[in-house]
Structures are given as structure tokens and as C-alpha cells.
Amino acid sequence: MPPAESEADRAAYFDDSDFGEVATIRGKEIDGFFDEPTEFLDGLASVSVKTTNPTFQCQTVKLPADLSEREPITVTRLDGTVFSGKVVMVEPDGQGLSLLNLEDDD
After folding, report:
1. CA distance 71 to 98
2. pLDDT above 70 (res 89)
3. Which residue has the higher pLDDT, 41 or 10?
4. What is the pTM (predicted TM-score) of this model?
5. What is the pLDDT of residue 87?
6. What DSSP string describes 75-90?
7. Percent of the chain, pLDDT > 90?
8. Residue 7 CB: number of other CB atoms within 10 A?
9. Stretch 53-81: mean pLDDT, rounded?
């Protein structure tokens, strides 16, 4: 079954500088949405550990065809700060979008 939207429809959704972020992979800028939820994990001796699970969602066609794990990525957040990390996993949804699971360079 073909996707319900065209690539142009998806591009219009992501191409809004007031709403989305810009990732850079191999010098190429890619519009998308960055999410960096904070999670608190139970640690030893009642000590919580704070962690994040950063992701970037974008059009699959905008990604390099040979994108691999451990690929460096930077994402400029809406506030102008920059996330710097690596791609851990690429999850295409089969409908023209991909979710990149990321790891911080810390």
C-alpha cells in the first residue's frame, strides 16, 4: 500500500523553522523534529540516575542512503543550542519517515 502522503507533503510538514530543528549529517542539513526526554532510573542505594533518550524524526529520503550506526550527527535545537552525538539506530516506518535513535557524545 502506498503512503497516504507524498514526499512534498512530508517536506512541508518538516520545513518550518519555527517548529522543527535541523540536523547535520555529513555536512548535509536535514529538517526534522528532535526529542530529548529526560528519564530518571532507579540506581543503587536509593540514588536516581538522570538520563536522556534523544531521537530525531525526519523524511527517509533526506537521509544518506548508506547511513550507518555510529554516524556523527549534530542537531540545532529551537533555542539555538547544539546537540552533538551519534546515530545508534535508524528506524524507517515504511511510510516515508525515519526515527533516528541517538546517543550523546558525553
Report:
1. 15
2. yes
3. 10
4. 0.80
5. 97
6. EE-TTS-EEEEEEEEE
7. 56
8. 13
9. 94
**Which amino acid type is present at position 94?**
G
Domains of the chain: 7-104 (2.40.10)
Q: 83: Cβ–Cβ under 8 A, 6 or more apart, which residues?
A: 34, 36, 54, 74, 75, 77, 102, 104
The chain-wide mean pLDDT, for the chain, equals 85
Dist CA 1 CA 30 (whole Å): 26
* Dist CA 89 CA 100 (whole Å): 6
DSSP of the chain: ---SS-HHHHHHHH--TTT-EEEEETTEEEEEEEE--EEEEE-GGG-EEEEE--EEEEEGGGS-TT--TT-EEEEE-TTS-EEEEEEEEEEE-SSSEEEEEEEE--
